[in-house]
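ok trying again, last paste got cut off:
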Amino acid sequence: MKHAEKLGASQAEAYVGQSRAFAIEAENSAIRNAEEKRDAGIGVRAVIDKRIGFAFVTTLSKKDVREAVTSSVKLARASIPDPEFVSLPASDGSYPIVKGLFDKNIAELPSDATADMIIRILDASKEVLEGRNYAISAGVQSSSGMNAIVNSLGISFSEKRSSIFLYCSPVVKETDDQTTSYDYQLTRDLTEINPEQVGKNAAELTLSVLGPKTIESGEMPVVFAPLGGGTVIGYGFAGAVSAEEVQKGRSYVTDAFGDVIASDNIEIFDDALLTGGLGSRTFDAEGFRSQRTSIIEKGVLKGFLHNSYTAYKDKVPNTGNASRPSYSGLPSISTSNLILSPGRGTLDDLVSEIDRGVLCRNTADRPNMTTGDLSAMLYEGFYIERGEIKHPLKNTLVGINMRDLLQRINQVGSDTKATLAMITPSFVVENAVVTSG
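nice, full thing came through this time. structure:
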């Protein structure tokens, strides 16, 4: 920072990232791949008036870091002023204590212990699939690292984090039918892992989607299991409440602040302080303190997610949602732990109350962020009749606008699960267009 200021920067920021990841992948009973990746580098932002320069290097040597500083200052001098830039964030001196972010046992996990986890996954899956024609892929990845950030306005913080990811994906062939599914576990606490459960669940899910059929199209209720609901809301709604998208008019809730956009039983918030949360952190990617931010309360849109740039632009408090892909990227905005508050009942309870409808366990589709229109292929979907799951579905789509989806959620379960996108229970959308054929 001193070097940047000496070169003429009015403000400056350095963001350091350092990580290690170890992964093993197996197929059936053979190790297919094993690798270790290490990465370290620094990104530097320099500000001269309202002109911003950014440069990064993939080492932490003193010489290379000074070159990155010099480059960022030169780029700032050559850049076009941004009239809407106000300042980098400053420290307010009151930062939270967030627990459960780093597990030394994950960071130091030996390769033989990782291989043993894969064997346990495979054995559990094979036990369920015994006597069938199958192939199984499985993997374990442990990662650990630290990031640190310093700026010329008093921010100076660092933090360690670690996590472990297990997955299993069987393929089963039966006559002319071949299908696959998967299950996974992602946690920051090594004591929480359950390789046998991952392998067993993946195999049972794969068998459950054998023999898919189409159904008569029409309007009907849709039950979203946590994985499918996490994709639709965790990606499809989270992006819409990014202040950057709202300010640029690229969100389907741009003009909806303070409006009722969901049913009154819906509460959604972003909580970076959650103990052991996959998105938890003491500070965001600009060094601003983390917090819990309410987004929807009793169906009313209460807030958007901000970094320092968008907060200054709107003249509102910063929510601490700056994010970066790594030290090599500039800050944008993303959720930390996006949470849909639970209600009552399990997935089975919700299904039991449906006379005719569909269950979406998994979809990879997201809505158009400007219009909110969603056309979601049910990659793992099931037909429900008289409160029972009758058969898996094929070639089936759910069509609905996200504003309508949020307003038509009439039941929320209690079976909360952390997915890759958010933390959510199952929920029921009382009516959507289902097309099958």
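cool. The CA atoms of residues 221 and 430 lie 4 Å apart. The mean pLDDT is 96.
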